[in-house]
């Protein structure tokens, strides 16, 4: 008599369900049980304290009243639509991108629903509410389009990301000096809050990246002048704190410029952050370059590829992929470092928080304000981290 | 022009610091000739083959490839490299590109072929080396033997006049050596000029026109496979052959 082979299952004790898992891992022995109970008590104690503060003690009115100030500083209220427009553009692209490259990601719609959700939860005015809901609608439209035609849209989405920075700057700054224009110029001294933090970060990342790559390549160059310039620059900039560079950009740059020339203070801060970040990026990228085996250079050379072609098609794609985690770490650091511009008098998130706290009716509400801006910092930092993990997963395909 | 030697090497020397790696090499290679280079490790055979496309720079003597002298002129070097295919011991495929992208990259970037032409040629070459079904995989998903065959196809895509093999089977598991050697034998029979550093004596016996025995940076002995295997003249050659052919 032949028996049909049955699949051999693990012993009953190994098949997992929640209760079994808890018994094995949390209450395996007397000491385990004791430690578990102590741990639960500590978590409860900390969380309940925090919750009690957040729900009963904290005076969130300071955030509600100053919400606009914290988000965009003193940007004129009648021009705010311009900012919503570029934010909508970004969210549309984000929806597209999530659908095209993040296929299978379930959090995309939830993420895009976030603006509308905040509009219902928090006590915003009628105008921001409308805009926030519009953001979700636009994002979902982008997401839907991306799902329907992922291949056809790829190119235009990439093009969209490429032109997004000029669009952001153009809309934020404006075109014409005359008041009658649709997009009159808004001076940068009115930019503030999250808007300023965001712009400093985006400009810092986008410009320091290519400069950093060039410096990394320069440091490995066979031309002594190029090599020594790169080494000198990197070591000089890495040797001083960012805050000194920001001060120098604010105080010393005017000394080097011809009489009558002025450089906008926000631009000066952007330049300082970019140049600072580039030096660190260069070293990170160099780490990636050094990890590429010599055989890759030789194979490329043996095929007749030129030095530049070898770098562009063979070496940099591999080197940059290797250092994605480090690069993202550095971008997150840059994002948080932008808060130092508050010290040189710009009103970024931290700078504006200090002015909010200086208002007589909100004295002593540091906790509420700093918890709020911490949450904003954390949300965007975690967003970057999440995107980088997805990116690594997608790019990791070929490397095993 | 076409009757002259395709490679001419005159009194080539190479030092690594104070170590004299090549001590006056003189060789002429005719078109369609298949040459097997062998010798103990550290004898300079890989260094020699790598000077021919200037992966190593020689410090004395002259090298002509297809009438062009290898000098410091970068354009000459790039031209010679695009006419000379090279296959490495460690394959050196580009791991971030698919098999197809590995093959079409140089024809598109250096030869300025259209993508379509390059891909058609690549498919033909993959069929020639027997792995058309692997075209859209990444190198890391292939076996060693398959990777080396892709590397050969990648070199052939540039339509080289000369193929250099630097120990192409030394990093392979035994059962994969044959599939690579089969491709090399077919290539030799098709009339390609080949210089191969290898200890695969079966390959040498089957297709080599001439064998060069390297030791201590010199060509100690050269001759047809019959001469080398049946009647080696030099003691060093005899000793080395007895060591590699014993089992």
How would you describe this structure to a colleague?
The complex is a heterodimer of chains A (400) and B (247). By secondary structure, chain A is an all-alpha fold. Chain A contains 17 helices and no strands. Chain A has 2 domains: 76-185, no CATH class; 189-400, MetI-like (MetI-like fold). Chain B is of the alpha/beta class and 247 residues long. Chain B has helices at 45-51, 74-83, 99-109, 115-128, 144-156, 174-189, 201-207, 225-230, 235-245, and strands at residues 7-16, 19-29, 34-38, 60-65, 68-69, 84-87, 162-166, 193-197, 210-215, 218-223. In chain B, the strands form 2 sheets. In chain B, strands 6-7-8-3-9-10 form a 6-stranded mixed sheet, sandwiched between helices. Chain B has a 4-stranded antiparallel sheet with strand order 2-1-4-5, covered by helices on one side. At the A-B interface, helix 13 and helix 14 of A face helix 2, strand 6, helix 3 and helix 5 of B.
SSE diagram, text form:
The complex is a heterodimer of chains A (400) and B (247).
Chain A: H1 18-25, H2 30-57, H3 61-72, H4 80-101, H5 107-121, H6 126-148, H7 150-173, H8 193-219, H9 224-238, H10 242-251, H11 253-256, H12 265-290, H13 294-302, H14 307-322, H15 324-337, H16 349-358, H17 366-395
Helix pairs in contact in A: 3-8, 3-16, 4-6, 4-7, 5-6, 6-7, 8-9, 8-12, 8-16, 9-12, 10-12, 12-14, 12-15, 13-14, 15-17, 16-17
Chain B: E1 7-16, E2 19-29, E3 34-38, H1 45-51, E4 60-65, E5 68-69, H2 74-83, E6 84-87, H3 99-109, H4 115-128, H5 144-156, E7 162-166, H6 174-189, E8 193-197, H7 201-207, E9 210-215, E10 218-223, H8 225-230, H9 235-245
Parallel strand pairs in B: 3-8, 3-9, 6-7, 7-8
Antiparallel strand pairs in B: 1-2, 1-4, 4-5, 9-10
Task: Using brief descriptors, characterize the structure shown.
heterodimer, A: 400 residues, mainly alpha, MetI-like fold, 17 helices, B: 247 residues, alpha/beta, six-stranded mixed sheet, four-stranded antiparallel sheet, 24% strand
């Amino acid at each position: 008599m032949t028996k049909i082979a049955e699949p051999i299952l693990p012993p009953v004790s190994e098949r997992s369900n929640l209760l079994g898992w808890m018994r094995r891992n949390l209450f395996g022995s007397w000491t385990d049980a004791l430690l578990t109970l102590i741990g639960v008590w500590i978590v409860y104690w900390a969380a309940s304290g925090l919750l009690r503060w957040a729900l009963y003690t904290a005076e969130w009115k300071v955030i509600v009243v100053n919400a606009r100030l914290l988000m965009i500083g003193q940007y004129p209220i009648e021009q705010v639509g311009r900012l919503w427009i570029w934010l909508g553009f970004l969210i549309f692209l984000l929806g597209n991108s999530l659908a095209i490259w993040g296929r299978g990601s379930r959090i995309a719609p939830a993420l895009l629903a976030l603006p509308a959700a905040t509009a219902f939860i928090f006590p915003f005015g009628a105008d921001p509410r409308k805009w926030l809901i519009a953001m979700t609608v636009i994002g979902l439209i982008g997401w839907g389009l991306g799902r329907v035609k992922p291949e056809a849209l790829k190119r235009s989405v990439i093009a969209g990301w490429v032109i997004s920075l000029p669009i952001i700057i153009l809309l934020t700054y404006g075109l014409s000096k005359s008041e009658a224009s649709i997009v009159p110029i808004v001076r940068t001294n009115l930019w503030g809050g999250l808007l300023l933090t965001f712009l400093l970060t985006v400009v810092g990342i986008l410009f320091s990246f290519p400069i950093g790559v060039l410096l990394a390549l320069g440091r490995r160059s066979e031309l002594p002048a190029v090599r020594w310039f790169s080494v000198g620059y990197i070591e000089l900039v890495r040797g001083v704190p960012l805050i000194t560079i920001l001060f120098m950009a604010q105080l010393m740059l005017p000394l080097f410029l011809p009489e009558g020339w002025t450089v906008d203070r926000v631009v000066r801060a952007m330049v300082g952050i970019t140049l600072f970040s580039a030096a660190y990026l260069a070293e990170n990228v160099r780490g990636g370059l050094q990890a590429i085996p010599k055989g890759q250079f030789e194979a490329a050379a043996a095929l007749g590829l030129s030095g530049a072609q070898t770098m562009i098609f063979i070496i940099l794609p591999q080197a940059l992929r290797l250092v994605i985690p480090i690069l993202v770490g550095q971008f997150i650091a840059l994002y948080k470092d932008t808060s130092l511009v508050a010290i040189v008098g710009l009103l970024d998130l931290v700078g504006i928080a200090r002015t909010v706290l200086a208002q007589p009716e909100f004295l002593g509400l540091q906790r509420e304000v700093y918890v709020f801006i911490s949450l904003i910092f954390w949300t965007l930092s975690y967003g970057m981290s999440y995107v980088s993990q997805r990116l690594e997963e997608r790019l990791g395909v070929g490397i095993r | 022009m076409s009757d002259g030697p395709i490679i001419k090497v005159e009194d080539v020397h190479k030092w690594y610091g104070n170590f004299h790696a090549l001590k006056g090499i003189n060789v002429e290679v005719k078109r369609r000739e298949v040459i097997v280079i062998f010798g103990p490790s550290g004898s300079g055979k890989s260094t020699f083959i790598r000077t021919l496309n200037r992966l190593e720079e020689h410090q004395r003597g002259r090298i002509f490839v297809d009438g062009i002298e290898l000098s410091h002129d970068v354009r000459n070097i790039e031209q010679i490299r695009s006419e000379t295919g090279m296959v490495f011991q460690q394959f050196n495929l580009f791991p971030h590109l698919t098999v197809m992208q590995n093959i079409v990259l140089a024809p598109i970037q250096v030869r300025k072929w259209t993508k379509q032409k390059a891909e058609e040629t690549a498919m033909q070459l993959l069929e020639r080396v027997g792995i058309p079904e692997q075209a859209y995989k990444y190198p890391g998903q292939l076996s060693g033997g398959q990777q080396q065959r892709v590397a050969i196809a990648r070199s052939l895509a540039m339509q080289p006049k000369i193929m250099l093999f630097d120990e192409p089977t030394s990093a392979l598991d035994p059962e994969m050596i044959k599939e690579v050697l089969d491709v090399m034998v077919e290539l030799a029979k098709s009339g390609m000029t080949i210089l191969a550093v290898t200890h695969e004596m079966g390959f040498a016996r089957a297709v080599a026109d001439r064998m060069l025995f390297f030791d201590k940076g010199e060509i100690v002995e050269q001759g047809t496979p019959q001469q080398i295997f049946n009647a080696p003249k030099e003691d060093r050659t005899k000793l080395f052959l007895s060591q590699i052919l014993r089992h």
